[in-house]
């Protein structure tokens, strides 16, 4: 029962009571405006007028349960995996040339030098982009299946 209250009832109660809460904020801000104008504090009166204008007529018209998206956006374990895979995968791109002494050989060839470095940078960018996309896609599918919601795919 606590799980149901925590995950649904409290959120729905907040959505339902928000209009009344906004009305209370507007009423308090209007009382503050009258008070601050009577004591000559125009700055605070302007602040409270702005608060009253912003909260006037506010309400939550539709209730949407967005827990999946909150967890999906805050999930960072895959980012750590992507970082480790990219470090491990890209580590050998430039380091092995020094160990095997291929760097001197590549500088003497006609296609060596800047063309080789450019090709390695492009390949590294494609590798990092592919790994990042793959983990983003896997996370999206996993969270959608776990929470039983495909709403963001249709919007």
Describe this protein's structure.
- It is a single chain.
- The chain has 6 helices and no strands.
- Helix 1 runs antiparallel to helix 2, helix 3 packs antiparallel against helix 6 and helix 4 runs antiparallel to helix 6.
- It is mainly α and 155 residues long.
What's the short story on this structure?
By secondary structure, the protein is mainly α.
Task: Please compute the radius of gyration using only Cα atoms.
Answer: 29 Å
N-to-C order of helices and strands? HHHHHH
Mean pLDDT: 81
- How many β-strand stretches? 0
Number of helical segments with 4 or more residues:
6
The residue ranges in which pLDDT falls below 50 over 5 or more consecutive positions are none
Structural class based on helices, strands and sheet pairing: mainly alpha
Largest sheet: none
Helix content: over 70%
Question: Roughly what fraction of the amino acids lie in strands?
Answer: under 5%
What is the element layout, followed by pairings?
Layout: H1 2-39, H2 42-55, H3 67-74, H4 77-100, H5 102-108, H6 114-147
Salient structural properties:
single chain, mainly alpha, 6 helices, 155 residues
């Amino acid at each position: 029962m606590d799980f149901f209250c925590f995950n649904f009832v409290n959120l729905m109660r907040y959505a339902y009571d928000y209009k009344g809460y906004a009305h209370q904020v507007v009423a308090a801000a209007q009382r503050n405006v009258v008070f601050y104008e009577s004591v000559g504090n125009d700055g605070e009166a302007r602040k409270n007028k702005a608060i009253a204008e912003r909260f006037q007529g506010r309400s939550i018209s539709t209730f949407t349960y967005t827990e999946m998206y909150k967890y999906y956006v805050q999930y960072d374990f895959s980012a750590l995996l992507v970082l480790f895979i990219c470090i491990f995968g890209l580590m050998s791109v430039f380091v092995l040339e020094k160990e095997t002494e291929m760097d001197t050989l590549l500088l003497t060839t006609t296609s060596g030098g800047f063309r080789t470095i450019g090709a390695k940078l492009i390949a590294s960018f494609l590798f990092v982009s592919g790994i990042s996309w793959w983990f983003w896609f896997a996370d999206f599918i996993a969270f959608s299946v776990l929470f039983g919601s495909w709403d963001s795919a249709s919007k």
